[in-house]
Automatic annotation (TrEMBL):
SUPFAM superfamilies: Quinoprotein alcohol dehydrogenase-like. This is Protein ROOT INITIATION DEFECTIVE 3. It comes from the Eukaryota. InterPro entries: Quinoprotein_ADH-like_sf (IPR011047), WD40/YVTN_repeat-like_dom_sf (IPR015943), WD40_PAC1 (IPR020472), WD40_repeat_CS (IPR019775), WD40_rpt (IPR001680), WDR18/Ipi3/RID3 (IPR045227). Pfam families: WD40. The keyword Repeat applies. It comes from Prunus mume. Keywords: Repeat, WD repeat. PANTHER family: WD REPEAT-CONTAINING PROTEIN 18, WD-REPEAT PROTEIN 18. WD repeats lie at residues 115-148, 262-303. The keyword Repeat applies.
């Protein structure tokens, strides 16, 4: 069953409908989400950052599928706007008003990483289809691409002059939406901005492929799965269809590369999602209505009405029969969601970090690896320093080199296990 989930910027809760029958499902209470602030975590539960006054502290709420009330409340160090989760639901990423990005482990709630990503607030976050990259957009107009392998690799980070992999700076105003295609590091990125443009980028080539100027501000984008066109939701209530083909030179009354336009919303189109299973486009608007469109004919297939207020987030979630049975069981037994997200990272004692000394073919050969604590290595170095000989100095340099290389090996193994969803700190 495909379920449409929608939230609002006012305290109107989260609506939930069967995409194909239109039947309303459970309505979740007490949610006022910012744009891009609603996410489904590993198909297991809903999470949303909460829209509050800029001076107020931030919060992130969890809802289980079976209960309308908030199950878990978290209070990060600052107000979080956009949220994103990897496909396995092993971690959640949030963007702060300060320009910081926070990465939490879902199972434990631990804050694993925090880094300053942008000069102004982070406005949107999205993972690549293979979960290896994180793309962020900001109110400063910048778009940056982050490699998770690098984010978790402290040794490599120290060797870099900047943390991001790519930095796209063509937009002159706040980035309103970012979507990515298929192909991981070889995918395209489409971004929208308050400057009334949508840009198409190549990640691997690190270049702008196309800039499209719209007659209105675009707040939402959705990609055609074949990546021939993308849909852009405008503040004039219209949905524009723009060509992605780099060779296309089509012109129309709407503007260069804009090949079509359709509308039924009476106000700003705030969010767009493409559903592959139904081959349909779902749009939300400030008029409080969610419309389901046939992607080819652009005819309205179904209409959902949110309880009240503008719609600013839409998700389409595939629920299996086994999940529905689990939800029914959790109603009787009570749900079990992860703990709240931590406000601050735990500072680890570097002397407790274990390094692998000697050859290690793979991460799985941990039983054959020889582990030595860093304080043991430091003790060996001190003994050699007391000798003061040239050979001792050479041995010290060798130990330091082997130690750094071993630390790097351990970190790489941790990163691979984390990205595969099998890593617990």
């Amino acid at each position: 069953m495909d379920v449409v989930v929608a939230s609002s910027s006012i305290e109107a809760g989260i609506g939930c409908w069967d995409l194909h029958t239109g039947a309303e499902q459970l309505r979740y209470k007490l949610c006022a989400s910012p744009p891009h602030g609603l996410v489904c975590v590993g198909q297991r539960f809903l999470a949303s950052s909460q829209l509050r006054e800029p001076s107020a502290s931030g919060s992130v709420h969890y809802w289980s599928w079976s209960k309308p009330q908030v199950d878990v409340k978290s209070f990060p160090a600052e107000q979080i706007k956009p949220l994103a989760a990897n496909s396995e639901g092993t971690y959640i990423v949030g963007g702060g008003l300060s320009g910081n990005i926070y990465l939490w482990e879902v199972a434990s709630g631990r804050l694993l990483k925090k880094w300053h990503a942008h000069y102004r607030a982070v406005s949107c976050l999205v993972f690549s289809d293979d979960d290896s990259l994180l793309i962020s957009g900001s109110e400063d107009g910048g778009i940056r691409v982050w490699s998770l392998l690098l984010i978790f690799d402290d040794f490599r980070r120290q060797q870099r002059s900047q943390l991001y992999e790519h930095n796209f700076k063509e937009h002159t105003l706040c980035v309103t939406d970012v979507v990515t295609g298929y192909g991981g590091g070889n995918a395209i990125i489409v971004s929208a901005s308050l400057d009334r443009t949508c840009n198409v980028w190549s990640i691997s080539k690190e270049k702008l492929l196309r800039k499209i100027v719209f007659p209105t501000i675009v707040d939402a984008i959705a990609l055609d799965p074949g990546e021939h066109v993308f849909f852009a939701g405008g503040r004039d209530g219209k949905i524009y269809v723009a060509a992605l083909n780099a060779e296309s030179t089509s012109d129309s009354k709407y503007g260069l590369h804009i090949i079509n336009c359709f509308s039924n919303h009476s106000n700003t189109v705030t969010c767009l999602v493409y559903s592959i299973s139904g081959n349909c486009l779902i749009s939300g608007s400030e008029d409080g209505v969610i419309r389901v469109w046939d992607a080819k004919s652009h005819n309205i297939v179904r209409v959902f009405k949110h309880a009240k207020g503008p719609v600013n987030n839409i998700l389409v979630i595939r629920q299996q029969l086994s999940q529905m049975n689990l939800q029914s069981s959790s109603r009787r037994q009570g749900s079990s969601l992860p703990p709240p997200l931590e406000k601050y990272p735990i500072v680890e004692d570097p002397t407790d970090l274990k390094a692998v000394i000697g050859r290690q073919a793979t991460c799985s050969n941990s039983t054959e690896a020889l582990y030595l604590r860093s304080d043991v290595i430091n003790g060996q170095i001190k003994e050699l320093q007391q000798q003061g000989s040239a050979s001792a100095e050479m041995e010290i340099e060798r130990l330091k080199h082997d130690y750094e290389r071993s630390i790097n090996t351990v970190q790489q193994c941790r990163i691979r296990e984390l990205l595969s969803g099998n890593f617990y700190l």
